[in-house]
Amino acid sequence: MPLRHVLLALAVVTLWGVNFIAIHFSLEHFPPLFLVGLRFTVLALPALLFIPWPRVKVAHLLGYGLGFGTLQFFGLYLGMSAGFPAGLASLVLQASAPFTVLLGALLLREKITGRRALGIAVAVAGLAVVGVSRGSIDGWLPFLLVVLGAFGWALGNLASRQAQTDRPLALVMWMAVVPPVPMFAASLLVEGPERISSALIASISLEALPGWAGLVYTMLFGTIVGSGIWVWLMRRHPAGVVAPFSMLVPVVGILAAWLMLGQVPTWLELLGGLLVIGGVLWSSTQIRVGLLPTRGSRLRALRTPPATP
User: Fold this and answer.
1) pLDDT single digits (tens) 12-58
2) Among 72, 168, 255, 296, which residue's CB has the most CB atoms within a 10 Å radius?
3) Measured distance CA(177)–CA(162) in Å, rounded
4) For the segment 198-224, what is each residue's pLDDT rounded down to a tens digit?
5) Residue-wise over 135-168: b if at least 16 C-beta within 10 A, else e?
């Protein structure tokens, strides 16, 4: 990759890492489930009006929207609202990678190599270390909710893989049409109309500006700008060259949470984080000597839609 493309990849990593800080500020002003519904409603409107249909089966779009858009953010936003730190949330969501490998083997009969099995084991061990550390501080529920979000991301990965679209960004935008109805319904049942109306009334004030700014950031920079650049890079380079940059997202997320929110991870959490990132990198890369990227690898990269909280 030329230097300018490396800088673009690092810019996307930074946008996605800071995205968790933006979510934190939004959650201080809006109920979590209602916030998810609001976020995807605003994204769905331009998709319906201006984005061409991604030419996929409706079942695959629904699977992607329910997995990545609904279940992932149901777990992530509820977990962060319950007190799970923003920086560590960016790390725990990396569990989507080993979940994707395991679900691919169970549901799509994909082969798990010894290298991938070892990487999954190391990543799971890292998650357990983080869980033990946070469980002793805040209890296990916030951690398990974020893990549920990672599981939803993995389900969305399988659906997007089955979709096999040559319009990945269009698939990401049209996916936003799916979550609003189930999320608003869950919000009414769990959070109740009184809490929702109170939050909306309070949002019309200067104190709510950080919440609105966080919501705008997640939609504009976290989803549209970040995903747009990522797709552009994926079209020009093999997936194995671009994808490893995403492992820097939790690094940025943890540093940003430390600097902006004062959330300092424990040494045990940092150790678990290193295990998670190392395991994911080990299981998702292949060692090839003397081989150039094939046309098939470029096509697989093009068909893989970007996904970020």
Assistant:
1) 999 999 999 999 999 999 999 999 999 999 999 999 999 999 989 99
2) 72
3) 19
4) 999 999 999 999 999 999 999 999 888
5) eeeeeeebbbbbbbbbbbbbbbbbbbbbbebebb
